[in-house]
Design a protein that fits this description.
10 helices; 225 residues; homodimer; Glutathione S-transferase Yfyf (Class Pi), Chain A, domain 2; Thioredoxin-like_sf (chains A, B); EC 2.5.1.18 (chains A, B); glutathione binding (chains A, B); Glutaredoxin
Chain lengths: 225, 225
Protein backbone atom coordinates (compact mmCIF):
# COMPACT_ATOMS: atom_id res chain seq x y z
CA UNK A 1 0.00 0.00 0.00
CA UNK A 2 1.40 3.35 -1.11
CA UNK A 3 2.19 6.11 1.34
CA UNK A 4 0.03 9.22 1.12
CA UNK A 5 1.39 12.73 1.56
CA UNK A 6 -1.40 15.23 2.25
CA UNK A 7 0.11 18.48 1.07
CA UNK A 8 0.52 21.11 -1.60
CA UNK A 9 2.75 20.57 -4.60
CA UNK A 10 4.42 23.99 -4.27
CA UNK A 11 4.54 24.22 -0.46
CA UNK A 12 8.11 24.46 0.85
CA UNK A 13 7.37 22.09 3.75
CA UNK A 14 5.81 19.54 1.38
CA UNK A 15 8.96 19.84 -0.76
CA UNK A 16 11.09 19.14 2.33
CA UNK A 17 9.41 15.74 2.70
CA UNK A 18 9.43 15.26 -1.09
CA UNK A 19 13.24 15.47 -1.10
CA UNK A 20 13.48 12.65 1.45
CA UNK A 21 10.89 10.51 -0.38
CA UNK A 22 13.04 10.81 -3.51
CA UNK A 23 16.34 10.23 -1.69
CA UNK A 24 14.89 7.04 -0.20
CA UNK A 25 13.08 6.08 -3.44
CA UNK A 26 9.76 5.59 -1.67
CA UNK A 27 6.66 5.54 -3.92
CA UNK A 28 3.96 7.91 -2.67
CA UNK A 29 0.69 9.59 -3.62
CA UNK A 30 0.31 13.34 -3.14
CA UNK A 31 -3.18 14.09 -1.81
CA UNK A 32 -3.76 17.79 -2.47
CA UNK A 33 -5.13 19.96 0.35
CA UNK A 34 -7.20 22.84 -1.03
CA UNK A 35 -6.09 25.99 0.79
CA UNK A 36 -8.22 28.17 -1.53
CA UNK A 37 -11.45 26.69 -0.13
CA UNK A 38 -10.11 26.71 3.44
CA UNK A 39 -9.82 22.92 3.66
CA UNK A 40 -6.73 23.29 5.90
CA UNK A 41 -8.88 24.95 8.60
CA UNK A 42 -11.77 22.45 8.34
CA UNK A 43 -12.61 20.23 11.36
CA UNK A 44 -11.59 17.14 9.35
CA UNK A 45 -8.13 18.58 8.59
CA UNK A 46 -7.63 19.90 12.14
CA UNK A 47 -8.14 16.35 13.39
CA UNK A 48 -4.99 15.24 11.59
CA UNK A 49 -3.07 18.56 11.81
CA UNK A 50 -4.09 20.62 14.86
CA UNK A 51 -2.43 23.82 13.54
CA UNK A 52 -4.12 23.73 10.10
CA UNK A 53 -0.89 23.22 8.17
CA UNK A 54 0.63 20.81 5.65
CA UNK A 55 2.09 18.28 5.02
CA UNK A 56 0.73 15.22 6.81
CA UNK A 57 1.94 11.68 6.17
CA UNK A 58 -0.59 8.85 6.10
CA UNK A 59 1.06 5.45 6.41
CA UNK A 60 -1.49 2.63 6.60
CA UNK A 61 -3.64 4.43 9.18
CA UNK A 62 -0.74 6.11 11.00
CA UNK A 63 -0.87 9.91 10.68
CA UNK A 64 2.14 12.15 11.31
CA UNK A 65 2.60 15.88 10.81
CA UNK A 66 5.60 18.27 10.81
CA UNK A 67 7.89 17.93 7.79
CA UNK A 68 11.06 17.22 9.78
CA UNK A 69 9.38 14.54 11.93
CA UNK A 70 7.95 12.89 8.80
CA UNK A 71 11.37 12.96 7.12
CA UNK A 72 13.13 11.39 10.10
CA UNK A 73 10.42 8.71 10.36
CA UNK A 74 10.75 7.80 6.67
CA UNK A 75 14.56 7.77 6.77
CA UNK A 76 14.44 5.46 9.82
CA UNK A 77 11.72 3.12 8.56
CA UNK A 78 13.28 2.83 5.08
CA UNK A 79 16.91 2.78 6.24
CA UNK A 80 17.72 0.04 3.71
CA UNK A 81 16.38 1.95 0.69
CA UNK A 82 18.06 4.68 -1.37
CA UNK A 83 20.63 7.05 0.15
CA UNK A 84 22.14 5.38 3.26
CA UNK A 85 22.64 6.94 6.67
CA UNK A 86 20.25 9.90 6.34
CA UNK A 87 19.55 9.40 10.04
CA UNK A 88 22.08 7.99 12.53
CA UNK A 89 21.94 4.62 14.20
CA UNK A 90 20.03 5.69 17.32
CA UNK A 91 21.75 2.96 19.37
CA UNK A 92 24.97 4.99 18.94
CA UNK A 93 24.34 7.54 21.70
CA UNK A 94 27.02 10.02 20.64
CA UNK A 95 26.16 9.87 16.91
CA UNK A 96 22.49 10.41 17.79
CA UNK A 97 23.46 13.37 20.02
CA UNK A 98 25.53 15.00 17.24
CA UNK A 99 22.56 14.52 14.89
CA UNK A 100 20.24 16.19 17.41
CA UNK A 101 22.78 19.00 17.76
CA UNK A 102 22.72 19.48 13.97
CA UNK A 103 18.89 19.37 13.98
CA UNK A 104 18.81 22.22 16.48
CA UNK A 105 21.36 24.19 14.45
CA UNK A 106 19.09 23.92 11.39
CA UNK A 107 16.00 24.87 13.43
CA UNK A 108 17.38 27.74 15.47
CA UNK A 109 20.50 29.03 13.68
CA UNK A 110 19.08 28.75 10.15
CA UNK A 111 15.28 28.40 9.98
CA UNK A 112 14.43 30.76 12.86
CA UNK A 113 16.56 33.47 11.22
CA UNK A 114 15.77 32.81 7.54
CA UNK A 115 12.04 32.18 7.85
CA UNK A 116 11.06 35.73 8.96
CA UNK A 117 12.97 37.07 5.91
CA UNK A 118 10.84 34.88 3.64
CA UNK A 119 7.57 35.49 5.49
CA UNK A 120 7.84 39.26 5.06
CA UNK A 121 9.87 39.43 1.83
CA UNK A 122 8.43 36.56 -0.19
CA UNK A 123 5.29 34.82 1.14
CA UNK A 124 3.34 37.92 2.31
CA UNK A 125 2.75 39.17 -1.24
CA UNK A 126 0.85 35.98 -2.12
CA UNK A 127 -1.68 36.71 0.61
CA UNK A 128 -1.73 40.46 0.00
CA UNK A 129 -0.33 41.73 -3.34
CA UNK A 130 -0.14 45.26 -1.87
CA UNK A 131 2.24 44.14 0.92
CA UNK A 132 5.42 46.20 1.14
CA UNK A 133 8.30 44.33 2.80
CA UNK A 134 9.96 45.97 5.81
CA UNK A 135 13.44 46.47 4.37
CA UNK A 136 15.04 47.55 7.66
CA UNK A 137 13.79 44.36 9.32
CA UNK A 138 14.99 42.21 6.42
CA UNK A 139 18.44 43.84 6.50
CA UNK A 140 18.73 43.19 10.24
CA UNK A 141 17.74 39.52 9.83
CA UNK A 142 20.19 39.15 6.91
CA UNK A 143 22.99 40.51 9.10
CA UNK A 144 22.11 37.98 11.81
CA UNK A 145 22.07 35.23 9.19
CA UNK A 146 25.57 36.22 8.03
CA UNK A 147 26.81 35.71 11.60
CA UNK A 148 25.09 32.32 11.79
CA UNK A 149 26.70 31.27 8.50
CA UNK A 150 30.09 32.09 10.03
CA UNK A 151 29.18 29.42 12.61
CA UNK A 152 28.26 27.05 9.77
CA UNK A 153 31.69 27.69 8.23
CA UNK A 154 33.38 26.76 11.53
CA UNK A 155 31.44 23.47 11.58
CA UNK A 156 31.97 22.61 7.91
CA UNK A 157 35.70 23.34 8.10
CA UNK A 158 35.95 20.39 10.51
CA UNK A 159 33.48 17.97 8.92
CA UNK A 160 31.73 17.51 5.57
CA UNK A 161 28.13 17.82 6.77
CA UNK A 162 26.29 19.33 9.73
CA UNK A 163 26.03 16.10 11.74
CA UNK A 164 29.42 14.62 10.73
CA UNK A 165 31.01 13.26 7.56
CA UNK A 166 27.80 11.69 6.22
CA UNK A 167 24.95 13.62 4.65
CA UNK A 168 21.77 13.48 6.74
CA UNK A 169 18.22 14.76 6.45
CA UNK A 170 19.33 17.87 8.36
CA UNK A 171 21.52 19.10 5.48
CA UNK A 172 18.69 18.48 3.02
CA UNK A 173 16.19 20.37 5.20
CA UNK A 174 17.83 23.67 4.17
CA UNK A 175 16.94 23.38 0.48
CA UNK A 176 13.30 24.58 0.28
CA UNK A 177 13.85 27.84 2.16
CA UNK A 178 17.50 28.70 1.50
CA UNK A 179 16.93 28.53 -2.28
CA UNK A 180 14.27 31.28 -1.93
CA UNK A 181 16.49 33.74 -0.04
CA UNK A 182 18.27 35.26 -3.10
CA UNK A 183 14.87 36.41 -4.48
CA UNK A 184 14.50 38.60 -1.39
CA UNK A 185 18.11 39.52 -0.61
CA UNK A 186 19.39 40.00 -4.18
CA UNK A 187 22.31 37.65 -3.49
CA UNK A 188 22.95 34.16 -2.19
CA UNK A 189 24.47 34.52 1.30
CA UNK A 190 25.26 30.79 1.35
CA UNK A 191 27.39 31.02 -1.80
CA UNK A 192 30.09 33.45 -0.73
CA UNK A 193 33.84 33.00 -1.22
CA UNK A 194 34.53 34.19 2.32
CA UNK A 195 32.87 30.96 3.52
CA UNK A 196 34.30 28.38 1.08
CA UNK A 197 33.16 25.31 3.01
CA UNK A 198 29.58 26.55 3.26
CA UNK A 199 29.60 27.44 -0.45
CA UNK A 200 30.85 23.98 -1.45
CA UNK A 201 28.31 22.24 0.82
CA UNK A 202 25.49 24.43 -0.50
CA UNK A 203 26.35 23.86 -4.18
CA UNK A 204 26.46 20.11 -3.61
CA UNK A 205 23.05 20.09 -1.90
CA UNK A 206 21.44 22.04 -4.75
CA UNK A 207 22.87 19.54 -7.27
CA UNK A 208 21.11 16.53 -5.66
CA UNK A 209 18.70 14.76 -8.05
CA UNK A 210 16.14 14.72 -5.22
CA UNK A 211 16.03 18.52 -5.27
CA UNK A 212 15.72 18.58 -9.07
CA UNK A 213 12.75 16.20 -8.69
CA UNK A 214 10.74 18.43 -6.35
CA UNK A 215 11.92 22.01 -6.72
CA UNK A 216 9.26 22.89 -9.28
CA UNK A 217 6.57 20.99 -7.39
CA UNK A 218 6.02 17.70 -5.55
CA UNK A 219 4.20 15.07 -7.58
CA UNK A 220 2.98 11.55 -6.86
CA UNK A 221 5.64 9.02 -7.77
CA UNK A 222 4.65 5.43 -8.55
CA UNK A 223 8.16 4.07 -8.98
CA UNK A 224 11.81 5.05 -9.36
CA UNK A 225 13.63 3.78 -12.47
CA UNK B 1 33.56 12.00 37.03
CA UNK B 2 30.99 14.76 37.23
CA UNK B 3 29.39 16.24 34.12
CA UNK B 4 30.25 19.84 33.36
CA UNK B 5 27.75 22.34 32.01
CA UNK B 6 29.49 25.38 30.51
CA UNK B 7 26.82 28.04 30.80
CA UNK B 8 25.34 30.98 32.65
CA UNK B 9 23.30 30.55 35.81
CA UNK B 10 20.53 32.91 34.62
CA UNK B 11 20.54 31.97 30.90
CA UNK B 12 17.22 30.53 29.78
CA UNK B 13 18.91 27.87 27.63
CA UNK B 14 21.16 26.85 30.52
CA UNK B 15 18.01 26.57 32.67
CA UNK B 16 16.43 24.31 30.01
CA UNK B 17 19.26 21.80 30.52
CA UNK B 18 19.22 22.43 34.28
CA UNK B 19 15.59 21.24 34.44
CA UNK B 20 16.53 17.94 32.80
CA UNK B 21 19.61 17.47 35.02
CA UNK B 22 17.34 17.85 38.06
CA UNK B 23 14.58 15.62 36.65
CA UNK B 24 17.16 12.90 36.03
CA UNK B 25 19.01 13.61 39.32
CA UNK B 26 22.37 13.88 37.57
CA UNK B 27 25.15 15.58 39.56
CA UNK B 28 26.88 18.33 37.57
CA UNK B 29 29.24 21.26 37.82
CA UNK B 30 28.28 24.61 36.31
CA UNK B 31 31.32 26.15 34.62
CA UNK B 32 30.48 29.84 34.18
CA UNK B 33 31.12 31.47 30.80
CA UNK B 34 31.93 35.17 31.20
CA UNK B 35 29.85 37.04 28.62
CA UNK B 36 30.90 40.42 30.12
CA UNK B 37 34.52 39.86 29.02
CA UNK B 38 33.46 38.39 25.67
CA UNK B 39 34.59 34.87 26.56
CA UNK B 40 31.71 33.45 24.47
CA UNK B 41 33.25 34.95 21.30
CA UNK B 42 36.84 33.84 22.09
CA UNK B 43 38.58 31.32 19.78
CA UNK B 44 38.63 28.77 22.63
CA UNK B 45 34.86 29.01 23.13
CA UNK B 46 34.09 29.01 19.39
CA UNK B 47 35.93 25.68 19.16
CA UNK B 48 33.30 24.06 21.38
CA UNK B 49 30.32 26.26 20.34
CA UNK B 50 30.69 27.59 16.77
CA UNK B 51 27.92 30.19 17.24
CA UNK B 52 29.32 31.69 20.45
CA UNK B 53 26.40 30.63 22.63
CA UNK B 54 25.74 28.64 25.81
CA UNK B 55 25.26 26.05 27.20
CA UNK B 56 27.73 23.31 26.27
CA UNK B 57 27.86 19.91 27.94
CA UNK B 58 31.24 18.33 28.66
CA UNK B 59 30.94 14.62 29.40
CA UNK B 60 34.34 12.99 29.88
CA UNK B 61 35.84 14.65 26.78
CA UNK B 62 32.62 14.58 24.72
CA UNK B 63 31.36 18.08 23.96
CA UNK B 64 27.78 18.82 22.90
CA UNK B 65 25.97 22.10 22.35
CA UNK B 66 22.31 23.16 21.84
CA UNK B 67 20.15 22.86 24.95
CA UNK B 68 17.57 20.52 23.41
CA UNK B 69 20.21 18.13 22.02
CA UNK B 70 21.98 18.06 25.40
CA UNK B 71 18.68 17.38 27.17
CA UNK B 72 17.77 14.48 24.86
CA UNK B 73 21.28 13.01 25.21
CA UNK B 74 21.11 13.13 29.02
CA UNK B 75 17.58 11.69 29.14
CA UNK B 76 18.69 8.82 26.86
CA UNK B 77 22.00 8.09 28.59
CA UNK B 78 20.48 8.25 32.07
CA UNK B 79 17.17 6.56 31.19
CA UNK B 80 17.28 4.55 34.42
CA UNK B 81 17.67 7.57 36.71
CA UNK B 82 15.00 9.98 38.01
CA UNK B 83 11.84 10.72 36.00
CA UNK B 84 11.22 7.81 33.59
CA UNK B 85 10.35 8.06 29.90
CA UNK B 86 11.49 11.65 29.27
CA UNK B 87 12.53 10.41 25.81
CA UNK B 88 10.81 7.55 23.98
CA UNK B 89 12.24 4.12 23.30
CA UNK B 90 13.80 4.88 19.90
CA UNK B 91 13.29 1.25 18.83
CA UNK B 92 9.55 2.02 18.84
CA UNK B 93 9.35 3.72 15.44
CA UNK B 94 5.91 5.27 15.90
CA UNK B 95 6.56 6.48 19.45
CA UNK B 96 9.83 8.04 18.26
CA UNK B 97 7.98 9.70 15.36
CA UNK B 98 5.31 11.18 17.68
CA UNK B 99 8.13 12.49 19.90
CA UNK B 100 9.82 14.12 16.87
CA UNK B 101 6.46 15.60 15.90
CA UNK B 102 6.12 17.11 19.39
CA UNK B 103 9.72 18.38 19.20
CA UNK B 104 8.89 20.24 16.00
CA UNK B 105 5.70 21.65 17.54
CA UNK B 106 7.75 23.08 20.42
CA UNK B 107 10.39 24.48 18.03
CA UNK B 108 8.17 25.96 15.34
CA UNK B 109 4.71 26.47 16.87
CA UNK B 110 5.95 27.74 20.23
CA UNK B 111 9.60 28.83 20.30
CA UNK B 112 9.69 30.44 16.83
CA UNK B 113 6.63 32.55 17.75
CA UNK B 114 7.40 33.27 21.42
CA UNK B 115 11.12 33.97 21.11
CA UNK B 116 10.80 37.17 18.99
CA UNK B 117 8.38 38.55 21.65
CA UNK B 118 11.01 38.00 24.32
CA UNK B 119 13.94 39.22 22.20
CA UNK B 120 12.29 42.59 21.56
CA UNK B 121 10.17 42.90 24.70
CA UNK B 122 12.44 41.45 27.38
CA UNK B 123 16.06 40.68 26.43
CA UNK B 124 16.80 43.80 24.32
CA UNK B 125 16.71 46.13 27.33
CA UNK B 126 19.58 44.24 28.99
CA UNK B 127 21.83 45.05 26.03
CA UNK B 128 20.46 48.56 25.55
CA UNK B 129 18.55 50.13 28.46
CA UNK B 130 17.16 52.79 26.07
CA UNK B 131 15.52 50.13 23.84
CA UNK B 132 11.81 50.74 23.23
CA UNK B 133 9.89 47.55 22.32
CA UNK B 134 7.91 47.56 19.07
CA UNK B 135 4.43 47.14 20.50
CA UNK B 136 2.73 46.59 17.12
CA UNK B 137 5.15 43.74 16.36
CA UNK B 138 4.66 42.22 19.82
CA UNK B 139 0.86 42.39 19.47
CA UNK B 140 1.02 40.65 16.09
CA UNK B 141 3.25 37.88 17.46
CA UNK B 142 0.95 37.47 20.49
CA UNK B 143 -2.04 37.05 18.16
CA UNK B 144 -0.14 34.36 16.22
CA UNK B 145 0.76 32.67 19.51
CA UNK B 146 -2.93 32.61 20.53
CA UNK B 147 -3.70 30.71 17.31
CA UNK B 148 -0.87 28.26 17.99
CA UNK B 149 -2.16 27.68 21.53
CA UNK B 150 -5.53 26.74 20.02
CA UNK B 151 -3.56 23.97 18.25
CA UNK B 152 -2.00 23.01 21.59
CA UNK B 153 -5.52 22.77 23.08
CA UNK B 154 -6.57 20.39 20.27
CA UNK B 155 -3.56 18.16 21.05
CA UNK B 156 -3.94 18.25 24.84
CA UNK B 157 -7.68 17.48 24.65
CA UNK B 158 -6.71 14.11 23.17
CA UNK B 159 -3.61 13.29 25.24
CA UNK B 160 -2.00 14.46 28.49
CA UNK B 161 1.31 15.69 27.04
CA UNK B 162 2.63 16.87 23.69
CA UNK B 163 4.15 13.53 22.66
CA UNK B 164 1.48 11.28 24.21
CA UNK B 165 0.32 10.39 27.73
CA UNK B 166 3.81 10.52 29.29
CA UNK B 167 5.68 13.72 30.10
CA UNK B 168 8.81 14.17 27.96
CA UNK B 169 11.63 16.66 27.68
CA UNK B 170 9.56 18.48 25.03
CA UNK B 171 6.93 19.60 27.56
CA UNK B 172 9.65 20.77 29.95
CA UNK B 173 11.41 22.74 27.17
CA UNK B 174 8.63 25.37 27.33
CA UNK B 175 9.36 26.46 30.91
CA UNK B 176 12.29 28.91 30.56
CA UNK B 177 10.71 31.08 27.87
CA UNK B 178 6.95 30.70 28.47
CA UNK B 179 7.35 31.82 32.09
CA UNK B 180 8.84 35.12 30.85
CA UNK B 181 5.99 35.97 28.47
CA UNK B 182 3.62 37.52 31.07
CA UNK B 183 6.26 40.17 31.89
CA UNK B 184 6.00 41.40 28.29
CA UNK B 185 2.34 40.68 27.48
CA UNK B 186 0.78 41.64 30.82
CA UNK B 187 -1.02 38.31 31.00
CA UNK B 188 -0.29 34.60 30.75
CA UNK B 189 -1.65 33.40 27.41
CA UNK B 190 -1.02 29.78 28.45
CA UNK B 191 -3.25 30.10 31.52
CA UNK B 192 -6.59 30.98 29.96
CA UNK B 193 -9.95 29.36 30.78
CA UNK B 194 -10.84 29.16 27.07
CA UNK B 195 -8.06 26.57 26.73
CA UNK B 196 -8.58 24.44 29.87
CA UNK B 197 -6.31 21.57 28.82
CA UNK B 198 -3.40 23.91 28.04
CA UNK B 199 -3.95 25.74 31.35
CA UNK B 200 -3.90 22.49 33.34
CA UNK B 201 -0.78 21.24 31.52
CA UNK B 202 0.97 24.55 32.02
CA UNK B 203 0.18 24.79 35.77
CA UNK B 204 1.47 21.26 36.27
CA UNK B 205 4.74 22.00 34.46
CA UNK B 206 5.38 25.12 36.55
CA UNK B 207 4.82 23.09 39.74
CA UNK B 208 7.64 20.60 38.94
CA UNK B 209 10.39 20.57 41.61
CA UNK B 210 12.95 20.67 38.76
CA UNK B 211 11.66 24.11 37.73
CA UNK B 212 11.73 25.33 41.34
CA UNK B 213 15.37 24.17 41.48
CA UNK B 214 16.57 26.25 38.52
CA UNK B 215 14.13 29.10 37.92
CA UNK B 216 16.15 31.56 39.98
CA UNK B 217 19.46 30.31 38.57
CA UNK B 218 21.25 27.08 37.68
CA UNK B 219 23.79 25.97 40.27
CA UNK B 220 26.24 23.09 40.50
CA UNK B 221 24.62 20.12 42.24
CA UNK B 222 26.81 17.52 43.94
CA UNK B 223 24.02 15.16 44.91
CA UNK B 224 20.24 14.81 45.20
CA UNK B 225 18.83 13.90 48.62
Amino acid sequence: MSLKLHGISMSTCSKRVGIILHEKRIPFTLVPVDFASGQHKSPEHLKIQPFGQVPILEDDGFFLFESRAISKYLATKYAALGTPGLVPDFKDLKAAAKFEQASSVESFDFEAVASPILVDGFFAKFKNPAHIPDQAFINKQAETLEGKLDGYERILTKQKYLAGDNITVVDLFHLPHATLLPAVLGKDLLDNEKRPHVAKWWKELQARPSWAAVKDGVNSTERYD
